[in-house]
């Protein structure tokens, strides 16, 4: 596995891979890798000749400086995991390498980012779209792999690709969970023992709500019961619980036959902000 | 010269050119070609193996539906001019081909678009950045050629390329003028005889103002005298005259030693909106 740290180095690498007719898979990450990331690498390995993983804790997508500072960084442990999973090149640039000058342009994704993460983390999806565009231009992937735990991020990146005619395919892979249901997340490392013990509640609330959606309970009732269940846990401060159209991400007043529903939540647990979601096909 | 009308067709063409190690030059135009466009094609021909010209009257960059409707369209005459100038492929897509779905994302370039064209044509540079991003992704150019008559557009496109790390070089070429100084523009075709006779005033005012800048007359005085000279022509309705930093495009209260100045204007002449500019090195 090659390790690249400069934009020019990555561009030279991917230009020659493209010229050789090799198919490139890109797995953009912020490091502190877990099984959720590794399945993305494995999927890319199965479908592409070249698998480029990137590790870059992107400052422009953090609306909270403390969250950025505390985001786990374990580059050596990450590098050890990537090669066995099938990664052929790791791109791990510095902030200065990715942002030699301050960025001027701003993205706005309209209604798609007026809800959930976009509403609670101002500027978050501008930062995501900026760094993803940069990585697409440096890595020239045929396919790029993202985890469905960041459901809204996948929707925004799909919109970016469609609206700017990026010539690549977005592949979204299901959330990987711990045995007790907690969605794998780099931020889980920051949970202390009591917070970790309480954390499975998030997925329990989501699965109970999904059953209620299947049973036809109204979106408002589902949301109210989920919020009550989250509020019952003293360690946990819920930020939002949304019953939304899985594609438009807009909150639902009523279900629309044939359209999937996504249940999304964010909550603070012992100083750590966690998100999770489940999709309900109807 | 190959003529391509589909995005997939252009992508296939440029993918194989890239694989063959051929350098690609892109000349994006809205058609109704004149010598200003053809010098871009010739410059691309001199520097690249493959020269792709695009002709697409992009609806998303028109803030005025009438202006879009009346924009000259002469595809057959354009095609005849391109091959002798060195164009190897012409991409002339339909609106539906470029915008299969309505675009959701919006670009904002901050101060760069709060002045001049951006201020007077709301949404203009969002449309420009969108279509230019699409064309870059379809044509995968090593170099893209733009005319300096659209000085602010060049600045916005350079910002786009820097901020999203597009792997290409922007080449800007000087404005080509008629013998009487009128900047070549596709819109000149729409001038009737009296308007055409009055039109050289625009460049006369710019050159007089440039001399005053060289002589050290203050930006405010230069602007006031230029506005007075434009107002003296009854056929002409000035929209703006700006004395600005050539790089940031922000209006100047005073000159900054070593920084170039750009003088930009827009005016309506017999129902046609024309722009022009000159740069003053100091």
Automatic annotation (TrEMBL), chains A, B:
Q: Name the InterPro entries for this protein.
A: Cyt_trans-like, Pantoate_ligase, Pantoate_ligase_C, Rossmann-like_a/b/a_fold
Which reaction is recorded as catalysed by this protein? (R)-pantoate + beta-alanine + ATP = (R)-pantothenate + AMP + diphosphate + H(+)
Identify the residues that bind beta-alanine.
61
One GO MF term on file is: ATP binding
Identify the CDD domains for this entry. Answer: PanC
What main location does UniProt list?
cytoplasm
Q: In which pathway does it act?
A: Cofactor biosynthesis; (R)-pantothenate biosynthesis; (R)-pantothenate from (R)-pantoate and beta-alanine: step 1/1
User: What EC number(s) has UniProt assigned to this enzyme?
Assistant: 6.3.2.1
Q: What's an example GO cellular component term for this entry?
A: cytosol
Pfam family name, one = Pantoate_ligase
Q: Where in the cell is it found?
A: Cytoplasm
List residues binding ATP: 30-37, 147-150, 176, 184-187
Give the free-text miscellaneous remark of the entry. Answer: The reaction proceeds by a bi uni uni bi ping pong mechanism.
UniProt subunit comment: Homodimer.
Give the family, as the similarity comment puts it. Belongs to the pantothenate synthetase family.
In Swiss-Prot or TrEMBL terms, this protein is called Pantothenate synthetase
> What taxonomic ancestry is recorded?
Bacteria, Pseudomonadati, Bacteroidota, Cytophagia, Cytophagales
* Gene name for this UniProt entry: panC
């Amino acid at each position: 596995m090659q390790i690249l740290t400069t934009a020019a180095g990555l561009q030279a690498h991917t230009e020659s891979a493209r010229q050789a007719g090799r198919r490139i898979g890109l797995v953009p990450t912020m490091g502190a890798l877990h099984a959720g990331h590794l399945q993305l690498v494995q999927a890319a390995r199965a479908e592409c000749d070249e698998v480029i993983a990137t590790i870059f804790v992107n400052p422009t997508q953090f609306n909270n400086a403390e969250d950025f500072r505390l985001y786990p960084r374990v580059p050596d442990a990450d590098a050890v995991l990537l090669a066995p999973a099938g990664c052929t090149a790791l791109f791990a640039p510095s902030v200065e390498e990715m942002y030699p000058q301050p960025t001027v342009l701003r993205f706005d994704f309209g209604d798609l980012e007026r809800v959930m993460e976009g509403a609670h983390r101002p500027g978050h999806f501008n930062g995501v779209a900026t760094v993803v565009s940069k990585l697409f231009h440096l890595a020239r992937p045929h396919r790029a792999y993202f985890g469905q735990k960041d459901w809204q991020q996948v929707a925004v990146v799909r919109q970016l690709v469609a609206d700017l005619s990026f010539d690549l395919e977005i592949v979204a892979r299901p959330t990987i969970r711990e045995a007790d249901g907690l969605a794998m997340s780099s931020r889980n490392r920051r949970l202390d023992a009591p917070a970790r013990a309480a954390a499975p509640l998030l997925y329990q609330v989501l699965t109970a709500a999904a059953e209620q959606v299947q049973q036809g309970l109204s979106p408002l009732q589902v949301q109210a019961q989920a919020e009550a269940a989250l509020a019952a846990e003293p360690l946990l401060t819920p930020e939002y619980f949304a019953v939304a159209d899985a594609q438009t991400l807009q909150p639902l007043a009523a279900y629309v036959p044939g359209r999937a529903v996504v249940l999304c939540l964010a909550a603070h647990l012992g100083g750590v902000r966690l998100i999770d979601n489940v999709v309900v096909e109807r």
